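Agenda item 2: CO-5-methoxybenzimidazolylcobamide complex prediction
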Amino acid sequence: MSDEEDIVLSELNDDELVEQMFDDLYDGLKEEIEEGVNILLERGWAPYDILTKALVGGMTIVGADFRDGILFVPEVLLAANAMKGGMAILKPLLAETGAPRVGKMVIGTVKGDIHDIGKNLVSMMMEGAGFEVVDLGINNPVENYLEALETEKPDILGMSALLTTTMPYMKVVIDTLVEQGVRDEYIVLVGGAPLNEEFGKAIGADAYCRDAAVAVETAKHFVSRKHNQLTA
Ligand code: B1M
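Presented output:
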């Protein structure tokens, strides 16, 4: 029997369990991650804390080792798959707040980019905060955004990019909205690890959102401002 099989997750205290979940995420062990999430839920952890402390915390370690050439794409894909398993359990719980509909957002990862974990997290948190979310998935050319804006008529357009090579595409989308004279009809929020506030401003977005919690706060702020302007 291996060392791994000796570990009984439910016998670990919270700190040990979170540490073990970091390891399991690193090793791409989806079932173990799902079990860990369920144990923390049973112990009364808030879904948001599990998401940020156990899952995102673990993914940060994976990210560092990917950057340093210790982990490679196949391993990172397994880790991402394990993370998605945990997120799937948390999604309905985060959306269960019963918050009234506060607005609508269309969101997608830009063309050339297939990273979707952060975007999915933002979608989940936005839904949890009462927003209706239309998720366009990954690798979206400008046409996809335009079509969705036309049919869904959201308050917010959200874009995600994780690569320095794909983040400039956000400007392509915003410039197209400007050209078509519809830029001001939408609140444009952007996010993704390589972005920053300066970049958000430079491309003409309304705001850069550092993480999912900031995305929710920023979205609420802009939507209430929009409603106030409409009723003034
Ligand atoms: Co990729 N990858 N990857 N990768 N990957 C990064 C981004 C990288 C930083 C890794 C590294 O070198 N350290 C690096 C980019 C370097 C750069 O551009 N400067 C990189 C690279 C190079 C690549 C490839 C090119 C590798 C290769 O093939 N040689 C390739 C590109 C593929 C492509 O897109 N065309 C690639 C592939 C992959 C996988 C497929 C293996 C996998 C993606 C699986 C998936 O998403 N389904 C993957 C992963 C998992 C990562 C890392 C390790 C983790 C990303 C992640 O999920 N983080 C990542 C390293 C890192 O970021 N530290 C890396 C967790 C997530 C919760 O955080 O996405 O930042 P994040 O989202 C946050 C915020 O940014 C924000 O809120 C989220 C939640 O708090 N946010 C938004 C994000 N989007 C938002 C949108 C909003 C608002 C907020 O709209 C309103």
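Discussion summary: The longest helix spans residues 73-94.
Owner for follow-up: CH.
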